[in-house]
Structures are given as structure tokens and as C-alpha cells.
Design goal:
HDH_CS (chains A, B); amino-acid biosynthesis (chains A, B); 377 residues; 12 helices; homodimer; ten-stranded mixed sheet; Homoserine dehydrogenase (chains A, B)
Chain lengths: 377, 377
């Protein structure tokens, strides 16, 4: 099969390399690149030229960002070409449109690489759903923030210091907002909930990040046998679902607490299979490239053809996600009990209610940090 | 598709239940049971009767043990019927014969449920191998021994006490030898190495268990930031491979160290995807039943048809697995350095050499316990 790659950054180059070195029967014949970077005879700056090439049957989109990725993906699907994408932003924003276009034209839509890098998460959730209802999912879905929190904990370093090191190593962007404010995890959570629950997931989910996490916060939780991880979570029961992104204070002896560096660990709970966890590199040229090539091979071999049918009647109900929340803040909060020096716990909030309370506290104390308390097993 | 279940114990009943409640298009029409237990119109005590039923296209074998399971599986494959089995003992003993019969008749051979219960390990390794060479695998593959070690560590209890509790809960057999001496893990390691490396794995692998593990041993390792887990491991490089089963003293902050209760966690390392870990229930009616039904669905839908081609020229080379070994023993050992009270460390042994040293020490001190020291990252 002849395929085109849109975007020749880290991931695009990884895909090209893996296919050239390790895959028979698939050939990258076209690459979309910027006009001033056309360094390879396969490259063009014109997407129309790629669309006009009847031999190209599949398009790998790894440009990132919403536009022009959205337009290119829709055009590919509408022309009957299969699409494999690692672009979480565009899938989170337009999953339902892509799914409908895919169903209409019969073209395949593969999004494994958009969540969890090399972790075989999306295909595994689809497989679980052949037999089980997925009652919940939860996980570390962002390598950058896990690297930061893990280094803060193991080295006793503070946030700014570790972030700077992560930027130096290329694990964090120069503008780290998408990672540290939970936007990247929000996109991955929307995609995961859509696949896990078979619903076009609500996009306006409660989300907060780790921008204000300090070494003292980690010490406070460590003294109570916990550490903090940024988790994307979703739950479904009784015809309703909810999802959220927030720092969670997990037990220090949980698997999540011990995930090192920039790895990801994502859990699905199925009715008969119980708890399944999937761990691997959450980013990087070769792991993410591997996830894309696995999707390409599924498509070429016909062994997997995901059909995203978002006609489910599940209703979004944010009250399904409840927890006790710890806030380290100078703000005065009603209904709060002491948790530790400078910190209080507020009992039994919804994730949405907690996000509103965080905003209230941030208005008084912009350094406020909030984490949900994971229920002890 | 009409299928037969051979053996109606915990797993067989789980398969029957899951198919009846959750799967369309598959029907259990025949069940092989003992003559005095024929409580269902689908049951027969005659395998010949099942083989004579032309409508049965697939046989689920979950009887356990080597015979008559081997004879029944061979007969099914030779008659062109697909086989799905959870029986690690018979697959470890006769994988090459089954694979050859499967290739000859074109019938499918599915062994997901033989390793790791509900953990999607075998299919995941096959998927990794579409792109990557698997350079190594390693994991907790036995829920009973993990339950024992985890309870000893968390509750500070001793081996015999926890074993008795595990037997009471049904996690351990009345005769626990297969679990605590590493035989069960040996079978799973042979199967995993065969799938991961594409070779009919040597069966005479070094193997030891946790029968002699004491609370004092765990305390000794805990003081050095480690805990003990029984691991099956394999490695392949330069046209050679090795595998072994032994207790390993892993870092206390590794994921392996923190696997609770009777869960399994198995790791594969691929060239491009890096480290992948898979976690789930290692046993039980519904998780193992789920793994079997996933195999059945792969077969029915045609989405996965494993072909085990064991013509690889990989040579078994036990010198590939080397480590430092700690022995808690009253025996006098040459080349040993002190490790702690009553314990010594012997440097750079092969797994086979360590197993021989353990036998030597056991001859003097039958309470000797040995564990490999995992390399610190």
C-alpha cells in the first residue's frame, strides 16, 4: 500500500524510518512539508497534489494542531482514504465529524497514536469492549508532567528547576502550558472516553494541572503515604458518564505512584476482565511512530477496522465523579477541614465543583494547588 | 460458530457464562465432562462424540494437565478444528507439535489464556513482533506467589501463615508445589519465550521458587531498598536466547515491587516501541474466561490468526542471563561476599550456574533461599 505522511517532524520522521527499515508491503510515496523544507523527492507543499495521487490509499497525519489538520483529514476521509493520526488536539475537537465521514465513505479512522504514545491503549480498549462494558478508565497520559513530578519527588527538586531541565532535554515545550495546565491530558481524556464509552464525549470537562505544585506539596502528601500524579479519568454507569482531568494524590505504593520519567500508565476496568493496565513510552519519535505503524498495519492487513459509532444515548453527568479534595491555599474556604500546614480538605465534591472552588481560591491566592484524594483500596 | 468446551471447572464455566451473556454469534453446543457430572444436556463424557459432531468448528480446552489434553488438542487440530486453550502445562510441553499440526491443517491455535490470565499478553507480544524484535521479556506471571509475597510484605506475616490463608481463599492449591516451586511460571516462561522469540523454547530452563522465602529475607532486602518477586524472564540477542525462572530482588520503587495481591505484570521490550508493560488479573474464572473468549472472537472474526513458525535458527545459550545472586544460607560458599545477616552475594553467575549453586547450598542447608539482584536502573 502507498501512503502519504502529512508533517515531517519528530513523529513523521519516526514513521518513515520504521516503515523503511521494518515493514514490507507499505511504501511512503508522498510527504507534505513546508515549502522551504522540501529536501526529499517525495515531498510536496501541496496537499491537493497528494489528494490527486490516486495511488495513495492512506494518509498519516502527524502535523499537530487543529487547522489545517482538520480540513486535510476530512478531505482524505471523504475521498475514501484511510486516515491514521497522532494528533490529539484535532481528534478531541472533531472526533464525531471524523467518525461520521469515516462511516460514510468506508475509509478507516485510526487514532491509537493520539493517546499514550507507544502504549497500545486505544486498540486495547476497543478489544475490551468486544466483551465487556468499560466501567471506568484512569491514567497517566502525559509524559512531560510525569517526568516533572517524578523528578521533583526523587530528586527533591522544585517545579521551575525540573521544568527547565525537561525543556533542556526536549521533554517539555518552550511554552509548557498545554502540558502543565492539563490541556494535553484533556484532549486524550476526551478521546479515551469517546472510545471507552462509545459516545462523542463532552469537551467542556473539568480540568486542572500541576503548574502550582511545589516540593512542599509533595512532602505534605508524602507524609500521608501519597504522591501526586496528573490523571485523566472517566466513569460510566447507569446510562451516564463523566470525565475529568486533575492532579490526584494516589497511594505511594500504587503502580501509578511509581511510574518513572516520561512513561504513561493507563487503566481500563471491564466487567469480566477486571482491571487492566497498559504501560509504555508516552511520547517520542519511535514509540509514537510505532503506534502509527501498528495502525497502518492493522489497516493494510484488515485485521482491525475501528468503527466509531457515537449514537450512544449515554448522558454526560458530571456528578458521577466525586472525591475529597485537598487545597493548599491562603484563601479562606467554607466547609474545609485542616489537612496539613497551609492545606485543607473539602469533602465530597464533584470534579466540576472542585474546579469551581479552585477558581475561587486562585482569585485570592494565585499559588493555590489542588489535588483529589484517591480512595484508598 | 458452534464450539465445544473441554473441562467444566472454574475456567470452563466462566467461558460458558461470558459467551451466553455477552457474545452474539458463538454458541457452546458441547461440553466434555466426567461421566458422573453430566448435569447439562450439552454435556458428554465422550470426546469421540464431540469430534464426530461436524458442526463444532472450535474446541476450547480448559481441562489442565498434559494427558488427555494433548491427545484431544492434537485430534482437534488434525481434524481442522480451531483450538483455544488455557492449559499452560500442555502447551509448554507440546507447543511445537501443536504449532505443526495447526500449520498442516490450517486450523487456528490460540494460547492467550495460558499465560497471565486476563492480561492480553500473548496477542500483544505477537503484535509487537509485527514491527519490532523482542529483545527481552520479564514478569510476574503467577498470582498465587505474588499474593503470598505481597501479603508477607504488607502484613509482616510469614510464609506458612500466608500460604494457609491463600489456600483458604482458593488462591493456592492444596498441593502448592507447582506455584511456589516455580513450575507454573516455568511453563508460562517457555510459552512466552516461544512466542516472543519465535522459537520452540528449550524446556530444561533454570527454575527456582519461593518455598524457602521468610519474612526475615524480605526484611533483609527491604533494608537495601528492594523486595522479592518471582519472575519469568527471557532475553534474545545475536541469534541466541535464554530464559529462566527465579526470585528476583527488585527495586522497592519499581512497578513490579508494587503489584498487589494476585495480579500479574509482564514486560516486553521492543526495538522501536521500547518497554511495554501489561497488568491484570492473573487467574480466576472471569478474567481467564475473558482471555479465552477474546481468542474465540479473534478466531470467529478472522481478525487474528497466530501462526507459530518455530523454524527460527535461534540457539539456546544459557550464558545470556547473568546476575549477582544473594543466598541466605548456612552453607559455606566459595567466592561469596557478605550481604547481610546470614546472607552472601555471589557475583556474575549465569542463571544456570546460580541454580547449581542453590542445589549445592540446599544439600547443606535445606532452608536456603536465593534471589537474583535486579540491576538498578
Amino acid at each position: 500500500m502507498k501512503i502519504a505522511i502529512l508533517g515531517y517532524g519528530t513523529v513523521g520522521r519516526g514513521v518513515d524510518q520504521i516503515i523503511a527499515e521494518r515493514v514490507d508491503g507499505v511504501e511512503v510515496t508522498r510527504i507534505l512539508e513546508l515549502p522551504d523544507r522540501l529536501s526529499d523527492p517525495r515531498m510536496t507543499a501541496s496537499y491537493d497534489e497528494i489528494l490527486a495521487d490516486e495511488e495513495v490509499e492512506l494518509v498519516v497525519e502527524c502535523m499537530g494542531g487543529v487547522e489545517p489538520a482538520r480540513t486535510y483529514i476530512m478531505a482524505a476521509l471523504e475521498s475514501g482514504r484511510h486516515v491514521v493520526t497522532s494528533n490529539k488536539a484535532v481528534v478531541a475537537a472533531h472526533f464525531a465529524d471524523f467518525a461520521a465521514a469515516s462511516v460514510a465513505s468506508g475509509a478507516g479512522l485510526f487514532v491509537e497514536a493520539a493517546v499514550g504514545g507507544g502504549v497500545p491503549w486505544i486498540a486495547s480498549v476497543e478489544k475490551v469492549r468486544r466483551i465487556d462494558d468499560v466501567s471506568s478508565f484512569s491514567g497517566i497520559m502525559n509524559g512531560t508532567t510525569n517526568y516533572i513530578v517524578d523528578a521533583m519527588r526523587r530528586q527533591g527538586a522544585d517545579f521551575a528547576e525540573v521544568l527547565a531541565e525537561a525543556q533542556r532535554l526536549g521533554y517539555a515545550e518552550r511554552d509548557p502550558s498545554a502540558d502543565i495546565d492539563g490541556i494535553d491530558v484533556l484532549n486524550k481524556t476526551i478521546i479515551s472516553a469517546s472510545v471507552a464509552f462509545g459516545v462523542a464525549c463532552e469537551r467542556d470537562l473539568p480540568a486542572s494541572g500541576i503548574r502550582n505544585l511545589t516540593k512542599a506539596d509533595l512532602d505534605l502528601f508524602a507524609a500521608r503515604g501519597r504522591t501526586v500524579k496528573l490523571l485523566g479519568r472517566g466513569v460510566s454507569e447507569g446510562g451516564r458518564y463523566a470525565a475529568a482531568v486533575e492532579p490526584v494524590a494516589v497511594a505511594a505504593d500504587s503502580l501509578e505512584a511509581n511510574v518513572p520519567g516520561n512513561f504513561n500508565l493507563i487503566t481500563a476496568v471491564g466487567a469480566t476482565v477486571g482491571e487492566l493496565k497498559f504501560y509504555g513510552q508516552g511520547a517520542g519519535s519511535l514509540p509514537t511512530g510505532n503506534a502509527i505503524v501498528q495502525d497502518v498495519l492493522d489497516c493494510v492487513s484488515g485485521t482491525r477496522r475501528p468503527v466509531y459509532d457515537f449514537t450512544s444515548q449515554l448522558a454526560y453527568d458530571p456528578t458521577l465523579l466525586r472525591a475529597d479534595y485537598v487545597l493548599r491555599t491562603a484563601a479562606e474556604l467554607g466547609d474545609a477541614e485542616p489537612y496539613g500546614p497551609g492545606a485543607v480538605v473539602v469533602r465530597d465534591l464533584t470534579a466540576a465543583g472542585a474546579r469551581a472552588l479552585l477558581d475561587e481560591a486562585l482569585a485570592t491566592d494565585p499559588t493555590t494547588f489542588m489535588a483529589a484524594l484517591a480512595v484508598e483500596e
